[in-house]
Amino acid sequence: xxxxxxxxxxxxxxxxxxxxxxxxxxxxxxTVNELAAPFAMTLPAIxxxxxxxxxxxxxxxxxxxxxxxxxxxxEPLREASEYVQRYRHFWESSADEPAAYVRx
Length: 104
Fold this sequence. Notes:
With 104 residues, the protein is mainly α. The chain has helices at residues 5-13, 16-25, 32-36, 43-55, 75-85, 88-103; strands at residues 59-61, 70-72. The model has no long low-confidence stretch (mean pLDDT 88).
């Protein structure tokens, strides 16, 4: 059974290490070593996280001589955001319910 891309995106975003990597890449391109620096894990472990992000389309990896920069790809984030926005009225209306109750 094939997994839909939105599920792959949300699964990639579910991990705090991967979210931290995306936050770093939002500042600009970085190498695997630069991305690994703040984490107490091995380069192979970071590479596994990068593969998950790449499979989700959230990052791409280039090749410039020996340098393989990773960069953020925003389109899948837009897709995830649009999905979540469809339900915005639910959390906005439920946030208003306690205030409405108090006013009564």
